[in-house]
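Question (not urgent): is this output format expected?
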Amino acid sequence: MTQETILDLIRDGLMAILLASAPPLLMGLVVGVIISVFQAVTSIQEPTLAFIPKIVAVLLSLLLFGPFIITTLRDYFINLYNAIPYLITPR
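Got this back:
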């Protein structure tokens, strides 16, 4: 296995992780910013006001983007599994 092959595997794995984690993280970020602006405008500093909506947004994004996340991870693992014979052959 060459250095380029290892770097390709790492790059593909990182891209799969980024694509799978982006929807829930972005939903949590957007809801967090909206709640923070609301708290700043109304001077309400209740911690649960920031925490609970983010949890709900992340769970809803997992329900909404679940098929995309599963497809992304499935495709990565299928490609990785199919590449095993080419990865373990001697030079």
